[in-house]
Here is the input.
Amino acid sequence: MEAIAEQIQRLELKLLQADLNAHPVYIDELLAENFEEIDNHGQIHTKSDVIHWLKRKDPNLPWVFESFRVKVLSDDWVLAIYSLQKTGQPDTGSAGSIRTSLWHRQGRHWKMVFHQATKLAGTSAS
Here is the structure.
């Protein structure tokens, strides 16, 4: 299971850090046709919405994964769960986000079918 977690983490990172304007082929390699996302404000986004965001993001912005793990749901379905933090930016007061992604193996390739981000609040007083 460790090998599959490493593979899925590499694919997640590829989406975040690749320059998708320079490498548009990655979009169809990594996102399923019926892909959907729920952002950290609870808004549902289509594949084209997410592609638009991915093409506008800074590919040089470093991202840090924490507690990356997968749950194997079947031979062809994996749920990735992790925390994500942008680094190298002025402090925005954000504690990052917790993410879940549903990946489906289609042939020899894994494609993301669903993604959800939940913004983490700062540390609590309790």
Observations:
- The chain has three helices and six strands.
- The radius of gyration is 15 Å.
- Residues 76 and 105 are 5 Å apart (CA to CA).
